[in-house]
Q: What sequence folds into this?
């Protein structure tokens, strides 16, 4: 029998206890092991709410009304505790303050492996490896509350990664990172995905990086998934992005606005692909491939 | 030829490097300013900057570069350890923050740090009453501000219940109502989606067009490239570059040294510079440059 998908949502609707409006309005989504998914949408589209259904904080902690079914590793999340789910789904919040509780960065990062039964030595080794990858090893002795926003985000990510979850969900965890740290984080996700087979779900406004790194993009609008597919196919649906109010990667926007001028065959995923088309136009001496 | 040279060769799209002479309301001068918090390392060192009335300038730099410290010095929340800051000629060392607030308005990064009143109208009226204005003047400015920012329908709403973009709009409205000649925006687009970011920056550009001096602290280089003509780069408390946005964006090495990266469209323009395409700072410019480039090629063949 084939293994159940890592995550499967069927007909999921959800509304918070303080609201009459549904935030999620019928989500059907299957994520298989080893996928690398980018999730985009405007503020209020339901991205964070969707993330919270994956590790059971919805419905266990938030109250409100959830309809439909969320299965993680084949099991209905209603029958699992958040602690059970945290070993499978590691969620990094947008607001790192909501996540950091210990007195030092190192203690924060030891929490998950120790609670999983790792020895202190093994836990430290795991924590230090990830801290080094995120250029945060020097913060070990610091109190998380004294760190800058970007540093807190790096520590929150480390703390989740030390649990070695099968799926890593980053909910806009890059908003306060500088460009170099963001690139480093995407590279780390690439490595986890390639080497450990970690399933990645990245919620981000970094459209240029998502287009290049993710292998599947979801566009969420008003509680519904309106686009779902490989980045190149999804980024070709410009009208859906505009309706949803989500910015396209700059080269995809450029390609769309010069489609009568340059020989585009498909949306470019990065500047190298756009460069190739401009060189083709320069070489041909013609002003249009159309 | 460096990419910086190319930037100055696109006069139609890149504004003059020379700011207008600093005079009158809306000018800021930072003269030989160094600052440190107690006995800590220097947060800012030997900073000399002039902001002329009506300029829109971006200040960029990574975390810890001194951006926030500079902002606080400009509104008088911090006083220089060395040197002086002049707001419209007024030395901040001898001025109260409340008095400086008439001249320079500060918009917090997080609207929740600023909003406190029970209604949008009350939020806007609060600052006006603090200025000591007469009741009828407060009422008149309130109505004018609500209209200017199209907030009439939200006047009785509890500000904290508003959507993030509207919260930011109320913050800006409550400051602009006090008619400062200078507006400081601290990371106004962080945590905002594309639609809200655009709305805030369009608003800033409109206020700038009305003559308000604007300083924009941000790490959102796509918007810096699209909106500001002048960019100041801070690193470890030092001003490492003060020039046209085009020149700064063209200097990938400088940006990398500050943990920043030029926008994708700037990187594309740099890669195809040898084809004769001038530098572009935004998608709009790249489209225009490409049209011009193709037309020139068509005319040549």
A:
């Amino acid at each position: 029998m084939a293994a159940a998908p890592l995550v499967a949502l069927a007909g999921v609707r959800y509304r918070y206890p303080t609201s009459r409006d549904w935030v999620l309005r019928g989500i059907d989504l299957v994520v298989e092991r080893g996928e690398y998914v980018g999730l985009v949408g405007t503020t209020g589209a339901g991205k964070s709410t969707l993330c919270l259904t994956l590790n059971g904080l919805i419905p266990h902690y938030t109250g409100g009304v959830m309809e439909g079914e969320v299965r993680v590793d084949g099991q209905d999340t209603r029958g699992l505790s958040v602690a059970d789910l945290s070993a499978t789904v590691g969620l990094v919040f947008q607001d790192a303050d909501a996540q950091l509780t210990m007195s030092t960065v190192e203690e924060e990062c030891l929490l998950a492996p120790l609670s999983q039964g790792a020895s202190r030595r093994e836990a430290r080794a795991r924590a230090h490896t990830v801290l080094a990858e995120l250029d945060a090893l020097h913060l070990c002795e610091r109190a998380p509350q004294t760190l800058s926003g970007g540093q807190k985000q790096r520590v929150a990510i480390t703390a989740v990664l030390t649990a070695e979850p099968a799926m890593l969900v980053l909910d806009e965890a890059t908003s306060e990172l500088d460009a170099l740290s963001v690139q480093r984080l995407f590279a780390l996700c690439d490595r986890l995905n390639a080497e450990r087979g970690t399933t990645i779900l990245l919620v981000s406004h970094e459209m240029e990086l998502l287009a290049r790194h993710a292998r599947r993009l979801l566009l969420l609008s008003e509680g519904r998934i309106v686009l779902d597919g490989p980045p190149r196919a999804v980024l070709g649906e410009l009208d859906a992005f505009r309706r949803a109010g989500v910015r396209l990667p700059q080269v995809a926007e450029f390609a769309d606005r010069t489609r009568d001028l340059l020989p585009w065959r498909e949306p470019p995923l990065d500047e190298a692909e756009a460069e190739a088309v401009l060189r083709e136009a320069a070489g041909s001496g013609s002003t249009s491939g159309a | 030829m460096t990419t910086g040279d190319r930037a100055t060769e696109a006069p139609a799209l890149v504004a003059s490097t020379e700011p207008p002479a600093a005079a009158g309301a809306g000018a800021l001068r930072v003269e030989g300013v160094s600052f440190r918090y107690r006995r800590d390392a220097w947060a800012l060192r030997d900073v000399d900057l002039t902001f002329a009335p009506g300029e829109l300038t971006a200040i960029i730099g990574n975390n810890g570069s001194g951006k926030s410290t500079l902002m606080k010095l400009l509104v008088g929340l911090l006083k220089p350890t060395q040197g002086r800051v002049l707001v419209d000629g007024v030395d901040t060392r001898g001025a109260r923050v409340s008095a400086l607030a008439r001249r320079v308005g500060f918009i917090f990064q997080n609207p929740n740090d600023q909003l406190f009143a029970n209604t949008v109208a009350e939020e806007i009226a609060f600052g006006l009453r603090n200025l000591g204005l007469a009741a009828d003047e407060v009422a008149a400015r309130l109505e004018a501000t609500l209209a200017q920012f199209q907030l009439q329908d939200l006047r009785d709403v509890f500000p904290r219940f508003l959507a993030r973009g509207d919260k930011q709009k109320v913050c800006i409205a409550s400051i602009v109502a006090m008619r400062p000649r200078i507006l400081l925006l601290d990371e106004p687009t962080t945590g905002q989606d594309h639609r809200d970011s655009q709305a805030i920056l369009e608003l800033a550009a409109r206020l700038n067009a009305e003559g308000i001096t604007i300083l924009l602290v941000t790490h959102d280089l796509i918007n810096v490239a699209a909106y500001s003509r002048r960019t100041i780069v801070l690193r470890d408390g030092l001003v490492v570059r003060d020039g046209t946005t085009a020149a700064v964006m063209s200097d990938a090495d400088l940006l990398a040294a500050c943990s920043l990266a030029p926008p994708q469209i700037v990187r594309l323009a740099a890669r195809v510079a040898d084809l004769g395409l001038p530098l572009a700072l935004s998608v709009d410019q790249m489209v225009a440059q490409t049209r011009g480039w193709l037309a020139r090629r068509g005319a040549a063949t």
Summary: Chain A has three domains: 34-63+75-88+166-247, 96-164, 249-290. Residues 249-290 of chain A form one domain.
